[in-house]
Amino acid sequence: MDLTSTYIRAVKSFEQIDITVLVNNIILDAVHQKASDIHIEAWESTLPIRLRISGILRELTHLPHEFLDRIAGRLKVMADLVTYETELPQEGRAPASPEYGNVELRVSIFPTVRGEKIVVRLFDPQNRSFDLETLGFESDTIQSFKKLIRRPSGLILLNGPTGSGKTTAIYSALCHLVDAHGPTISISTVEDPVEFNLPMISQSQISNSRGFTYPMALRSLMRQDPEAIMIGEIRDPETATIAVQAGLTGHMVISTIHSDSTAGVYARLINMDIEPFLLASSITGVLGLRLLRTICPRCKTEDRPNPEHLSLLPEGFVEETAFYTGAGCDACSQTGYHGRVAVTELLNSSELVREGVIQKLRTSKLHDIAIEEGMITLWQNAMAKVQRGITSLQEVIRVITVNQL
Q1: pTM for the complete prediction?
Q2: Torsions phi, psi for 244 (to 5 deg)
Q3: Which residues have a Cβ under 8 Å from the Cβ of 306 and sit 6 or more positions away?
Q4: C-alpha angle with apex 360: 358 to 362, nearest 5 degrees?
Q5: pLDDT (tens digit, 9 = 90+) per residue, 148-176?
Q6: Domain boundaries, the chain
Q7: What is the pLDDT of residues 316-371, one digit of tens each?
Q8: Region of residue 336 (phi > 0: left; psi between -120 and 50: alpha; otherwise: beta)
């Protein structure tokens, strides 16, 4: 039984509930269940509290509507927000406290027609290590990625949806550089926000309200004599231009960018009016990332996927593979999964890829060229994990879209 439900059942009536205790119990339940986010929003007839666990939202409990304002007020106080403001979005942070499991909180509040929607992201700075070897990358991918980040210059881009592990991979890459070079390397970051404090790395957080934007920060940072620069995200043409120029002028730059595929990163940047020849010269590699839930070892059982899913696979693969899934148990909260593992697609900027970028070839053609040059696709990487019994075919199809097969 979770702490929140236990506490609610222990009081005689909702009027006796201490809102501070209730909010702390919700956070503690999220910590114990290793949730990344807490969602609190009013539905038609109830106020659900949901936790995002391994990328999937799961219900924790339901409360009456009238608790929304009190919960929002408590979280606003914790995150040092304006308590009486209910019609504008607000964002803030609450430092770690023993009361709620020594985690840092990032609180986002957004107005809706039913009241404020609250999302709380949890960060555990004590139990978070950034080690490339523990990310679940295939050994060949790790070695290729290390070669890229050890180059003295060039732009490395990470691509994937929100929550796909991009920040963890970048932080791990920066920590690898610190381990490899020690005090002989200068590393600076520009982030929004800074999620974890890294040793021996100069981190800065942008503030759009004060005019401290990505472009402004990067222009100033170039005069700080860094060897390696991390940019939290390339969102606009100006940031993209500075990142490309930095990669061309003797800096190792690593950043993230959103696009619908790994090879599609080039088209996204070309649409930002970056000249193809500059992209071909500056980008050394693009790493596509996704996270797959791993089968719970306690309830792992052999499975026969449905025929529709099997039809996506080569006949020989089906005959040679034993498929597994999780039946569901107390250890995995009846989900059948426990933990997640990364699947990757590393596109190295080979001579043929660069020529294709300069010629503005279609994304699908660039993808094919990269495969011919040895790129292991997200689908191939994921299916290798299915064959090893790490994840299920159903989970792969949930995460990897058809155009990535």
Answers
A1: 0.88
A2: -65, -45
A3: none
A4: 140
A5: 999 999 999 999 998 899 999 999 999 99
A6: 3-123, 132-404
A7: 898 889 999 999 998 888 899 999 999 999 999 999 999 999 999 999 999 999 99
A8: left
Task: Find out whether 132 and 342 touch, Cβ atoms under 8 Å.
Answer: no
- As a whole number of angstroms, the distance between CA 29 and CA 115 comes to 24
Both tokens of 366, joined, read 């660039």
- 3-123 adopts what CATH topology? Beta-Lactamase (3.30.450)
Which single residue is written with the structure tokens 């920590």?
A: 175
Q: How far apart are CA 332 and CA 339, in angstroms?
A: 9
Tell me the pLDDT tens digit for each residue of 218-245.
999 999 999 999 999 999 999 999 999 9
Give the residue among 38, 191, 32, 172 at the shortest CA–CA distance from 106. 38
Place of tokens 């070079």: 181
Domain spanning 132-404, CATH architecture: 3-Layer(aba) Sandwich (3.40)
Burial of 335 (0-12, 13-18, 19+ CB in 10 A): middle
Residue 281 tokens read as 């010269």
Residues 6+ apart with CB under 8 A from 160: 166, 256, 288, 289, 290
Chain mean pLDDT for the chain:
93
Bond from prior residue into 193 cis (ω within 30 degrees of 0): yes
Alpha carbons 3 and 22: distance in angstroms, whole number: 9
